[in-house]
Design brief:
By secondary structure, the chain is of the alpha+beta class. 50% of the residues lie in helices and 17% in strands. A hairpin with a 4-residue loop joins strand 8 (273-280) and strand 9 (285-292). The chain is elongated and about 75 Å long.
């Protein structure tokens, strides 16, 4: 056997990934195997070499790629160590079989045929794995496009409402210019997100800063004034004067508030009530609640309304849209480390709540 390693592996993981217990155990296991086997392991940071994500058709990181012996295999998820343990003996078998070279073509005994069958089975498993990875990647890209499309609808809606309010002399030209300027800025940023969506995780496209959430809530209510003015709605705001600042992406938080309040106004009948409440829940979190006395949501649907493309059958005919607004809210809240949930009963309205971390001197 020559000096080249029998088994060549490539681990694509960031420093944050390498700090996880799963990857530490995987690295310890591979280093232990290096003492007894001819193994070459390379570590690559995907942030420094993003082209590898496309080259190896990766849909998630961290990922372990078996480069040699052929065929190539890719492993992801928290069970990478278990997968490597299960495959290691078969990889060495494949290497010994391929090392026989010409002898396999000459000998047609049961042992040779068994080795070939084993190799074909491995190739079939790899093809299935690659097919699943490609299907997953297509689903992710489709979801990203839906998310960006919905993201673009939010500033367009706000700009359109501002124009309508200006035409009805409800706001002056200074306010109109301010709203249009901010919404155009949002759309410019969203267009950048769309260009990056093919190579970057959607969740990474946010920039948390110190944020005065009470002021943001006031701005959002003003932007949506067209949806509630003249309808006799009771708008209740409960925002403590001593509310601490939060650590969040202002644009994304605005998007969550716009989505939740827009839904509340949309599904609340004239003369109804919409309430926006902020509460300093703990030393670490601020809780935001958007409540209405609309038709409510059945208990059977409450567990799935935050999933992608889920729309309630009773509302799909009344409203337009892509049906991903609540899924967008969920992903934004979760990226910030918070949680989002709904409390609702049919005929008694709904209350959508989410948490956002308090600013304690964090850096972006």
């Amino acid at each position: 056997m020559d000096g080249s390693p029998a088994l060549s592996l490539l681990l694509i993981a960031s420093s944050r990934h390498l700090a996880s217990l799963e990857l530490r155990d995987l690295l310890a296991y591979l280093k232990q195997q290096e003492l007894n086997e001819s193994i070459k392991l390379q570590l690559i940071d995907p942030g420094q070499h993003p082209e590898l994500l496309e080259h190896y058709r990766l849909v998630a990181t961290p990922a372990l790629v078996k480069l040699n012996p052929q065929p190539r295999q890719v492993f992801t998820g928290v069970t990478m160590l278990d997968q490597v343990r299960a495959w290691l003996n078969r990889w060495h078998q494949m290497e010994r079989v391929s090392g026989l070279g010409v002898s396999l073509d000459v000998l047609e005994d049961d042992s040779a045929r068994s080795s070939r069958i084993l190799e074909l089975e491995d190739q079939l498993l790899v093809l299935r794995q690659e097919n699943e990875a490609l299907s997953s990647r297509l689903r992710i890209q489709e979801r990203q496009l839906r998310m960006v499309a919905h993201d673009l609808r939010t500033p367009l809606t706000a700009a359109n409402l501002a124009l309508q309010s200006f035409e009805l002399n409800q706001i002056d030209v200074v306010h109109l210019r301010d709203v249009l300027s901010r919404r155009l800025h949002d759309m410019e940023q969203l267009s950048r997100d769309l260009l990056e969506a093919g190579s970057t995780r959607w969740e990474a496209l946010f920039n948390p800063q110190r944020l005065a959430l009470s002021q943001l809530c006031a701005d959002v209510l003003l932007e949506l004034e067209k949806m509630w003015s003249g309808r006799g709605l009771e708008i209740i705001t409960d925002i403590p004067s001593d509310l601490p600042d939060v650590f969040a992406d202002a644009r994304r938080m605005r998007q969550v508030l716009l989505n939740l309040l827009e839904n509340a106004f949309k599904f609340t009948a004239d003369q109804g009530m919409v309430k926006l409440a902020l509460m300093h829940r703990t030393s670490q979190w601020v809780q935001v609640s958007v409540s209405d006395n609309g038709p409510g949501i059945p208990a059977s649907d409450q567990g799935r309304i935050f999933l992608d493309t889920v729309r309630l059958p009773g509302t799909s005919k009344q409203t337009s849209g892509f049906g991903v607004g609540l899924a967008v809210c969920r992903r934004i809240v979760e990226v910030h480390g918070g949680k989002i949930w709904v409390v609702s009963s049919p005929g008694e309205g709904s209350s959508f709540c989410f948490t956002v971390p308090i600013w304690r001197g964090q850096s972006p």
